[in-house]
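B., you asked whether I could sanity-check this one before it goes into the benchmark set. Here's the sequence:
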Amino acid sequence: MTNPCLLGEGDYNKIPMDTKELWRQILLRIYPTLRHDQFITWFADTTVLRVDGHVMVVGVPSQFAYSWIAKHYTANILEAGKTLNPAITEVSIVVDPSLTNADDTKKVSLESVIPETKKVRKLPRKQEVKIDDDTVSYMLNPNYQLHNFIVGKHNRLVHAACLAVGSNPGAQWNPLFIYGGVGLGKTHLCQATGREILKNHPDKIVVYLTAERFLNEVVDAIKKYNAQDFKARYRNVDCLIIDDIQLLADKDRTQEEFFHLFNELYNANKQIIISSDRPPKELAGIETRLQSRFEMGMVAEVHFPDYEKRLAILQNKCAEQQLFVAPEVLDFIAYNVHHSVRELEGVLMQASAQMRLENITPTVKSVGGILRKLDRNGDVAATAQAQGNSSPDNKSSIRSADDVINLVADYYRIPSSELRGPSRKREIMLPRQLCMYLIYEVLGHSYDTIGDYFSGRNHTTVLHSYNKVKSRIGKDSKMLQDIHSIKKEMGL
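And here's what the prediction gave me:
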């Protein structure tokens, strides 16, 4: 059956068409070529900004959306545009972050494109569901949004998963398990995904809890003999977010309650989002049956951002806080903070406090003083500009597995491809095991993630390599010397 809203070829000159209607007609042609959740994820908040002669300029809300659409759908967009207006012979895609918050007068509502059979049926809000008399929306920090999470090449997967869940909760990625080191943005992503769900589905009920709060509620329910009230409290939620699940380790009764709650929500197609400092199979003290359930959906790691993304985070923070900090000072902070995004922003905020309270303009010297107070070793490197290197994530600020592999390969004078490959020669195996040990110790990557860097070796192989190096350190003075020398090259 022909869609009555879909214009045919040549109809563009019969019906006046502004850029918004032009884009709606293009989306009507693109929608059938994608899965519903993919369409929502990639084409939300997009529009035709203008048509300059033969060039149609398409706006997208983020760099990530730009990368995907430009790679996969430029040709489709051009073909649809030419069908509607033969004068269009070229498509230009540009990033316009303001589209995320733009109203429907400036962009196409996807509701006008999606067939009725695919639309989410809205149910009446269940007003009786409250947590400690606070509605759940108050639990989500409004500063945490998916559009203001700086996406680097190593964090594209987790960000895309959050976008997909925000658009279509309880569908493909359920549960969504996000893990990574302290201060890397797990809470940001969890809460931002909750807010995205509420933005796209206002009638959904989203509950965000830290694992500690969940534990306290279980203990309180046991003390007051009201376990049934506790269970009823969460029975009707549409999305449950538990932050820092590792805090439930060895809490058997709480894990028992969570196990049953997980099953009830999952079987009802309700979205579950969990964060942790490590992947499911490395969660010591968490029951195996829970670990296996955590792995049923999407398991995604949050990585520490590289230098360029750290600099972008600082620049964004300055824009949000209306701060003016000299570029060389931001460069200095980005170059010297190697542990967490939280620390990165903390240094900037301390410099801002000095500026506002003590009237001290942030300089490389004053920020160096802040960094020395935070750094146990007291070693503060020069800026990237002073080093003559625009991407300083090598030497003293190595933050990727590739950097470690290349450094170890240079140290032992063997090709990095040999370290990554299948060779079982002794002269290759020992440096490879040392690589795995250093990546785990210095970067904190999971065993599964490390295995991916070495031709897809499994969790057990990486764990064996790590334990072998660890056990030899106290016995093999040569290996100990090599580790010290390599760490010195890293600036550790």
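One thing to flag: The first strand starts at residue 47 and ends at 52. Otherwise nothing jumped out at me.
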